[in-house]
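ok here's Threonylcarbamoyl-AMP synthase, seq below lol
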Amino acid sequence: MSQFFEIHPVNPQGRLIKQAAQIIHGGGVVAVPTDSCYALVCHLDDKTAVERLRRIRGIDEKHHLALLCRDLSEIGVYARVDNRQFRLLKAATPGPFTFILEATREVPRRLSHPSRKTIGLRVPETPIVEALMAELGQPLISSTLILPGETEPLNDPEEINARIGKQLDLIVDGGACSMEMTTVVDLTGSEPELVRLGRGDPAVVGL
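and the structure came out like this:
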């Protein structure tokens, strides 16, 4: 059975953030609220945790996981970004967007798309997630909390606990958040391509 932390969505309690970061660092899979909807997150370098996350979601290695980064400079470590791409990223971050970019060698092979060598990256505007990444000192692997066979993300921490609490190590209750997923934009081509329309306004990146 997972632990359940009530964390303030605007002013996260440092003690609880530290405990949550310790759970993630120890290999935990955690449900957290974001600026789009609830997501599952785990440690970047923990292969077993990533595999658990994929099993809970019912997805294989061809499904992009997103790397939650603290800022644009961190995105530049994990993705190849040219000047055109940087301008688009700067216009849309932080915010509810996921960008598909070419992965660098800093990204573990198991996290990038097996045939395209791409990775989904985003900079969320969420105090809880920002505090977690600051405490860990690195990005988080994430995936929208949609259960297998369903089309809508889970948004209620109590429902998350009732339905999949036994499969998680921690549920962070930061209150209800949006039911909309991130807007996904592929930046690997000559022009931006809208992959999924979500909470982010595609006009921000000229779409």
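fwiw The chain has one domain: 3-205. kinda neat tbh
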